[in-house]
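Whiteboard transcription, Tuesday session. T.W. wrote the C-alpha cells on the left side:
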C-alpha cells in the first residue's frame, strides 16, 4: 500500500475565548487554544481540568442500579453468603476484579474470583462458564467485572439456579434488552458526560465508592480504615490499557493513580511489573498503555489471566517478582505469535486490497491463536486505515474474531447489520469481537465491507495530522513543556498537542540516527533547536525552508537535559 502525503488540519478555535482563558488563568495562549479546542472553554472548567480533584467525582449513587447493587452486596456480606467476582481476562477486567476482591475482602466478605479462559470459555459471562463457577464456588451472588451487559441468557440461567447477579460493565448493550439482574451498572445506559467514558475498572471503582459511602453512613467500623485512594493505581492501569478517552472522570482517576505510583505508593505487584518492563523514569500513560498493560494482557491472551490477578493482589514481594517474570515471558511469546500472524494477514489483505472498493477488511485462517488476533486487527487498522477484522477458525469450524475501527465507523452498529450471520457479538465503538461459523465468513466479508463503506469518512482513509496551534520556534521552550505537563494525563481523547512552525531553515545536513531515524537542527531567527523524525530516514529534504509539525519534549542524555522537537511531519515551505 503506497504512502500518500498526510493532510494537515489546523484546529479551529474561538480566539476570544482562548485569550480570556489565557488572561484569567495566567497560561500561555497556545495552551489556552488547546483547552478551548477540547471543549474546556471557561476559567472554571479549565481550572478543574488542569487540577482535577477526587472530591469533584460524581456521587456513585447517581448511576442507575447502584442502590440496589449496594443493598444486595451488604446483605450478602452481613449474611456471610458466598460471592464470586466474575471478571474479563484483559487488563481492564483483571484490574476490575482485583479492585472488587480487595475492597470486599476488607469488609470481611466471603468472596472468590473467577476469570474465564479465552481459549476454553470464550468472552464474557456465559452459561458454560457459569457452570464452572457453580462447581467451584457455589455462590449465591455473582458480581461481573467489565462484562455482562449482553449476558441475558447467562443471567437467566443463574437466576434459575438461585443465584443473584450484579452487572458492572461499560460495553454497549443490544436493542435495549438487558439481563434480568439485581442491577446493571453501566454508564452507557444513562451516565453523565463525566461518567459515560469510564472503563470497566472505573465502573467497579464507582461500586466500591458506593459501598464505602453507605458503610460510613451506617457507622460500619471497617469503612473508617479503608482509603479508596490506595486502589487508584489499579484504576489507572485498567483505564489506560482499555484505551478509553482520558476525559471526564477518567482524567481524575488516572491523574491521581499515576501520582500514587510515582510517589512509590503502588502495590508490590505493580512495582514488580515496572521492574521487568525496564521502566526507570517517571510513569506516564505511555508506560501503562504500552509496557504495563500488555504484560497484564499477555497471560489472558495465551492462557490464564489468574497470574495477573494474583500479581495485583499479592503482598509478597518475592512472589510478585516471580509472577511478573511469568507475565514478561508470556508477553515475549505473545509478540512472537503476533508477528507470525501479522505477516500472513497483511500479505492476504495486500493481495486483494483496492483503495476504491476495500472499506472493511476481513481476514481469517485456521490455526491462528485467538489471543493475538486483537493486536493484529489493531495493527492492520493502523496500516490500512480501515476497520479490520481478524478471525481465527478452530478445529470445529467456529471462528472467533477481533475487530478494530477508525473514528467514523461504529463497530457495534456495523455488527448489528451482520447479526444474522453471527453466533454472538459485542464490544465498543472502536473495538469489538464476535463468533461465527466458517461457512458464513464469506457472506460476512461482503456485508461488513458494504456497511463500512456507508459509514466511513474519507478523512479516515488517509493520514491526518491535527495541528493544535501554529507558534514561533522560540515559543517551543521549557515554559511550553511545563504547560503541556499540566494537560496530563495525555492519551486517548486528550492527545499530546501537535505544534506547527512555518519557514524554518536547516542548520547543516540532516543525520541518520539508528536504523531509520532522521536528526536535524532547525533555525528560525535567533532560535536554533534539535529535531528528530522517528522512521523518517527515507524522507527527502532539500535546501528550501520547511514547515514542521512536532511535539515538544525534554531530552535527557548523559546527565544533560535539553529541549527536542519530535517531528510528526514536515513539508517544503511554498
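and on the right, the sequence the group agreed on:
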Amino acid at each position: 500500500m503506497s504512502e500518500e502525503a498526510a493532510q494537515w488540519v489546523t484546529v479551529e478555535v474561538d480566539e476570544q475565548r482562548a485569550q480570556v482563558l489565557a488572561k484569567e488563568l495566567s497560561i500561555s495562549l497556545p495552551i489556552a487554544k488547546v483547552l478551548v479546542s477540547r471543549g474546556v472553554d471557561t476559567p472554571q472548567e479549565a481550572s478543574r481540568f488542569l487540577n482535577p480533584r477526587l472530591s469533584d467525582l460524581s456521587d456513585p449513587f447517581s448511576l442507575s442500579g447502584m442502590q440496589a447493587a449496594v443493598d444486595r452486596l451488604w446483605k450478602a456480606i452481613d449474611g456471610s453468603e458466598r460471592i464470586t467476582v466474575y471478571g474479563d481476562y484483559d487488563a481492564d477486567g483483571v484490574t476490575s476484579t482485583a479492585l472488587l476482591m480487595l475492597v470486599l475482602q476488607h469488609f470481611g466478605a466471603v468472596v472468590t474470583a473467577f476469570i474465564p479462559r479465552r481459549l476454553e470459555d470464550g468472552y464474557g459471562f456465559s452459561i458454560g462458564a457459569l457452570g464452572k463457577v457453580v462447581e467451584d464456588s457455589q455462590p449465591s451472588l455473582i458480581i461481573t467485572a467489565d462484562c455482562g451487559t449482553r449476558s441475558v441468557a447467562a443471567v437467566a440461567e443463574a437466576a434459575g439456579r438461585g443465584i443473584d447477579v450484579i452487572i458492572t460493565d461499560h460495553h454497549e448493550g443490544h436493542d435495549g434488552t438487558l439481563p434480568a439482574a439485581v442491577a446493571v451498572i453501566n454508564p452507557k445506559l444513562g451516565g453523565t458526560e463525566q461518567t459515560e467514558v469510564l472503563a470497566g475498572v472505573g465502573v467497579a471503582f464507582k461500586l466500591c465508592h458506593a459501598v464505602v459511602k453507605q458503610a460510613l453512613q451506617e457507622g460500619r467500623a471497617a469503612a473508617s480504615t479503608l482509603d479508596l485512594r490506595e486502589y487508584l493505581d489499579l484504576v489507572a492501569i485498567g483505564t489506560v490499557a482499555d484505551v478509553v478517552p482520558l476525559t471526564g472522570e477518567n482524567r481524575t482517576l488516572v491523574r491521581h493513580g499515576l501520582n500514587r505510583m510515582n510517589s512509590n505508593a503502588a502495590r508490590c505487584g505493580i512495582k514488580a511489573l515496572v521492574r521487568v518492563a525496564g521502566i526507570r523514569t517517571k510513569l506516564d500513560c505511555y508506560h501503562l498503555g504500552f509496557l504495563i498493560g500488555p504484560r497484564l494482557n499477555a497471560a489472558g491472551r495465551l492462557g490464564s489471566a489468574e497470574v495477573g490477578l494474583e500479581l495485583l493482589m499479592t503482598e509478597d514481594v518475592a512472589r510478585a517478582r516471580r509472577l511478573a517474570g511469568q507475565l514478561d515471558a508470556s508477553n515475549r511469546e505473545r509478540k512472537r505469535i503476533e508477528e507470525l500472524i501479522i505477516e500472513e494477514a497483511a500479505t492476504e489483505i495486500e493481495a486483494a486490497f483496492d483503495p476504491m472498493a476495500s472499506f472493511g477488511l476481513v481476514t481469517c485462517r485456521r490455526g491462528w491463536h485467538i489471543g493475538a488476533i486483537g493486536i493484529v486487527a489493531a495493527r492492520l487498522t493502523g496500516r490500512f486505515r480501515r476497520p479490520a477484522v481478524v478471525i481465527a477458525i478452530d478445529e470445529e469450524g467456529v471462528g472467533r474474531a477481533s475487530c478494530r475501527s477508525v473514528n467514523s465507523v461504529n463497530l457495534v452498529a456495523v455488527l448489528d447489520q451482520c447479526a444474522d450471520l453471527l453466533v454472538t457479538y459485542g464490544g465498543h465503538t472502536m473495538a469489538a469481537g464476535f463468533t461465527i461459523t466458517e461457512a458464513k465468513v464469506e457472506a460476512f466479508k461482503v456485508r461488513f465491507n458494504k456497511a463500512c463503506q456507508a459509514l466511513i469518512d474519507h478523512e479516515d482513509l488517509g493520514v491526518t495530522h491535527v495541528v493544535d496551534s501554529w507558534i514561533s520556534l522560540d515559543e517551543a521552550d521549557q515554559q511550553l513543556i511545563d504547560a503541556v505537563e499540566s494537560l496530563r494525563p495525555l492519551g486517548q481523547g486528550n492527545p499530546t498537542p501537535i505544534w506547527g512552525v512555518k519557514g524554518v531553515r536547516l542548520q547543516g545536513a540532516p543525520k541518520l540516527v539508528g536504523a531509520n531515524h532522521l536528526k536535524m537542527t532547525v533555525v528560525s531567527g535567533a532560535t536554533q533547536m534539535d529535531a528528530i523524525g522517528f522512521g523518517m530516514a527515507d524522507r527527502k529534504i532539500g535546501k528550501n525552508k520547511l514547515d514542521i509539525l512536532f511535539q515538544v519534549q525534554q531530552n535527557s542524555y548523559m546527565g544533560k537535559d535539553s529541549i527536542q522537537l519530535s517531528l510528526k511531519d514536515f513539508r517544503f515551505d511554498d
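Someone added at the bottom: The first helix runs from residue 15 to 25.
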